[in-house]
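Lecture notes, continued. The same structure-token format from the folding unit now serves as the input rather than the output. Read the line below as a description of shape only.
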């Protein structure tokens, strides 16, 4: 709802209530424009979320002010800055949060500020925003902030009041925005202005409209645009393939403060687009990285993580890819990171828990971190499948940019994950989304996804891909072995007495899977080296003379995976046997030190 207001006189002093009106009017303008901002988002990555991130950040700031707005502009600005810090999303959101913190620090305890004092405060806010970035770039929202703040300082002394001052600043911000394609080459190539800068200009336009007598919002709510609107005219740009994840954390250390410089030093080598926003006791940290687990572990060393978020930018950048069909897997699928990126693979994580402490598989905790917890915790980890809603949200988002989705999952004989994916597919669009039971796991699922990727590259449609999956999965299996039965005993799958006898005889169990992916006993070998040779023999028998594609997965098995890869290359005459590290869910079931081989028989192409 909104109400029409009379055109106000040009006010001379900015108090808490005026500040709240400014925040609400500007926020509503950004919220109304977020789809357009998403569409033109190409820097630092074309992840189509700058509009959503800015809208969420501004809304968090304006909503925190609530109905009981402080009379003091200093107090109001601090409330808004804290709200922005709590709700900041993405690179642009963190910059806005830091700008507001700098603004609030400049206002200090002032009840009101003049135009000149306001202009000086915006200068400090702008400088604070620049300081928050490890590598500030011109041609972004920073440039618009800088030019705007400079224009306010130039005009403050001669302006008749805030309405005139802010209108002058808006004109300067528009000019700075128009200049961004000349400052960043990627904007010029994409024929767009900077999305963050445009968002700030929309904010200023909303403020100007309100001050000149336009509508003032009563509630910060805007109906979302229909899904798919942005996909019709989305700006295209090159995805930055160096970093897969956008990671954020809000860390606090009440009483002792967070050592900002030490925190920056601890995480600066983990990626790019590093932004550290906030005050002494609470900081929001943002980075683009390939190691979100290391990032979260490093941040946790400096205080309590109040909240964290890790976005897979493969999903966010999927609109820039040419393939018409997207591939989805759950986090039990194992593939080399580079291969997963080439396939544009979108991963929906399972959860692993130690008691009440839960982690998203491969997102919140690394393989090394999980192995440490496994050794140290008296509790056994438990894995759980993703909720149907996670799959539903993933499919809906992908269908904004793709004609269809093929979603491949761990064998239904081992997990309920495929059933959850199938339920989501039926709910979203059973024609355009195909959920497939891989009837295998780990690197076996990875090999099936590689085959489907080849099919997509060859122009196969959804029906052909589903048929291909049903055929290829019969030519895929996994053979494995473990170095210790300790975790099978702890999990109740093997009795302590049986494990004691097996260990005394140096026997290593072999694990095989039936045609539905159900694990079973495959015999034993004396010693781990012989166990690996036994696996290779099983692979040879399964191949039956056909050429093969092979992949090894291990859960921290030292030099054994390299040894096995060398033997497989010699035995089968293949140039490559990729080796991947098992994720937490697989490790939760087999423990550290396991080694498995995934094999796919390659059929001769049909005549």
């Amino acid at each position: 709802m909104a109400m029409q207001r009379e055109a106000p006189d040009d006010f001379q002093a900015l108090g808490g209530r005026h500040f709240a009106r400014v925040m609400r009017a500007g926020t509503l303008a950004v919220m109304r424009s977020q789809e357009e901002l998403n569409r033109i988002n190409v820097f630092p990555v074309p992840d189509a979320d700058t509009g959503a991130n800015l809208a969420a950040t501004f809304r968090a700031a304006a909503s925190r002010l609530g109905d009981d707005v402080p009379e003091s502009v200093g107090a109001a600005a601090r409330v808004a800055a804290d709200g922005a810090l709590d709700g900041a999303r993405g690179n642009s959101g963190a910059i806005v949060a830091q700008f507001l913190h700098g603004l609030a620090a400049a206002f200090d305890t002032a009840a009101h500020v003049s135009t000149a004092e306001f202009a000086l405060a915006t200068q400090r806010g702008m400088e604070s925003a620049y300081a928050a970035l490890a590598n500030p770039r011109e041609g972004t929202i920073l440039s618009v902030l800088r030019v705007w703040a400079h224009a306010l300082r130039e005009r403050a002394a001669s302006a008749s009041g805030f309405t005139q001052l802010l209108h002058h600043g808006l004109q300067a911000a528009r000019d700075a925005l128009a200049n961004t394609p000349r400052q960043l080459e990627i904007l010029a190539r994409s024929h767009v202005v900077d999305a963050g800068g445009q968002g700030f200009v929309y904010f200023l336009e909303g403020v100007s409209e309100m001050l000149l007598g336009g509508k003032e919002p009563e509630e910060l709510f805007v109906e979302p645009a229909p899904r798919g609107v942005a996909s019709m005219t989305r700006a295209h740009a090159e995805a930055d393939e160096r970093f897969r994840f956008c990671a954020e954390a809000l860390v606090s250390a009440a009483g002792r403060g967070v050592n900002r410089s030490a925190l920056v030093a601890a995480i600066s080598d983990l990626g790019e687009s590093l932004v550290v926003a906030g005050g002494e006791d609470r900081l929001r940290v943002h980075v683009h990285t390939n190691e979100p687990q290391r990032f979260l572990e490093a941040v946790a060393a400096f205080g309590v993580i109040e909240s964290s978020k890790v976005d897979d930018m493969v999903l966010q950048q999927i609109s820039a890819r040419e393939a018409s069909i997207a591939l989805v897997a759950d986090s039990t699928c194992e593939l080399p990171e580079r291969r997963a990126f080439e396939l544009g693979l979108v991963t929906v994580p399972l959860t692993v828990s130690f008691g009440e402490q839960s982690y998203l598989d491969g997102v919140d905790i690394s393989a090394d971190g999980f192995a440490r917890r496994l050794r140290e915790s008296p509790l056994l980890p438990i894995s759980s499948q993703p909720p149907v809603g996670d799959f539903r949200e993933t499919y809906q988002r992908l269908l904004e940019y793709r004609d269809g989705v093929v979603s491949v999952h761990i064998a239904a004989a081992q997990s309920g994950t495929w059933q959850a994916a199938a339920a989501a597919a039926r709910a979203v669009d059973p024609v355009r989304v195909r959920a497939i039971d891989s009837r295998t796991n780990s690197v076996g699922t990875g090999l099936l996804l590689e085959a489907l990727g080849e099919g997509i590259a060859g122009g196969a449609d959804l029906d052909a891909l589903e048929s291909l999956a049903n055929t290829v999965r019969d030519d895929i299996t996994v053979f494995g072995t473990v170095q210790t039965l300790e975790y099978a005993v702890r999990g109740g799958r093997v009795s302590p007495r049986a494990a004691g006898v097996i260990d005394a005889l140096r026997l290593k169990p072999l694990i095989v899977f039936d045609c539905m992916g159900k694990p079973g006993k495959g015999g034993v070998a004396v010693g781990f080296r012989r166990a690996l040779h036994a696996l290779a023999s099983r692979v040879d028998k399964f191949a039956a003379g056909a050429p093969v594609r092979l992949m090894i997965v291990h859960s921290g098995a030292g030099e054994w995976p390299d040894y096995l890869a060398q033997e497989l290359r010699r035995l089968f005459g293949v140039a490559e046997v990729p080796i991947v590290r098992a994720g937490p869910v697989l490790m939760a079931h087999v423990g550290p030190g396991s080694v498995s081989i995934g094999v796919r028989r390659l059929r001769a192409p049909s005549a």
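Point for the exam: The CA atoms of residues 98 and 277 lie 5 Å apart.
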